[in-house]
Amino acid sequence: MSNIQHIIKLLKSDSPARRYNACEELIALRQSLPPEAIDVLISLTKDSNSDVASMAQRVLAIDANEKKWGVRVADMRMILFWIAFGVIISTVTLGIILGNTKTVSQKIVMAYHCPEAINVTEKLGPMVVDTDRQPIGPTLLGGICTFADGSTKVISPNEYLATIIAGSFGLSAVISVSIPVVFTLLHIMWKKKAKRVTRITNEEVASK
Asked: Judging by beta carbons within 10 Å of its beta carbon (0-12, 13-18, 19+), is residue 108 exposed, middle or buried?
């Protein structure tokens, strides 16, 4: 006989002390109670012994609260999973879009390599062709930062591409994380406002 079954048997004892102790043992178990135990506890809430009845109500309340929080934790884990999944997908997608947007990529390079420059341009080489002799695009030889005094700074192609990739995905990650954070804060604010309105409404109704 399992421990829970033994306790259920004690709940049905003729001795009030045993019934009371059985309720205490259920609390000590700290696990979700089976339907059989719930049924017995419901009947014990009307026990002739007031202490047993009170303890049975307490056990039922604790069990209901733990099950409620168990469901909430499971729901929260699922929500966090989908938020994380969405953040990853949006980070990758947005990072690719930003990296291929010339204006954004040049701003990223300027911010990292030459923040005082007035503009950044790409230094391009000969056209690259594929195996079928079809043009793919010019060779990237790096970037050129131009300053207000006319001076320039050349950025190597490896540094130029690495900066664009790191900056694009870093910026997209910040944006992707910020969106759910903002919506979460708005949701919390909305819930607080809704509770305040409900409380005020109830107070007004009660005062009439």
From this structure: buried
Based on the fold, state whether residues 104 and 159 are members of the same structural domain. Answer: yes
pLDDT surpasses 60 at 1:
no
In a domain, residue 16? The reply is yes
Taken in order 6, 12, 18, 19, the sign of the CA dihedral is positive
Among 78, 79, 71, which residue's Cα sits nearest to residue 32?
A: 71
Residue 128 sits in the same domain as residue 200 = yes
| Nearest-angstrom CA–CA distance, 31 and 19 | 19
Write down the mean pLDDT value for the chain.
85
Q: Report the predicted TM-score, pTM, of the whole model to 2 decimal places.
A: 0.54
3-class DSSP string for 87-98: HHHHHHHHHHHH
Check whether 82 has a pLDDT greater than 90.
no
Q: Are residues 135 and 198 in the same domain?
A: yes
Neighbours of 7 (CB within 10 A): 20
Mean pLDDT of the region 76-86: 83
Query: Structurally, how many domains does the chain consist of?
Result: 2
Query: Which residues have a Cβ under 8 Å from the Cβ of 139 and sit 6 or more positions away?
Result: 124, 125, 126, 127, 128
Q: Residue 131's pLDDT band (boundaries 50, 70, 90)? A: low
Rounded to 10°, the helix 3-11/16-29 angle is 150
**Residue 44 belongs to some domain of the structure:** yes
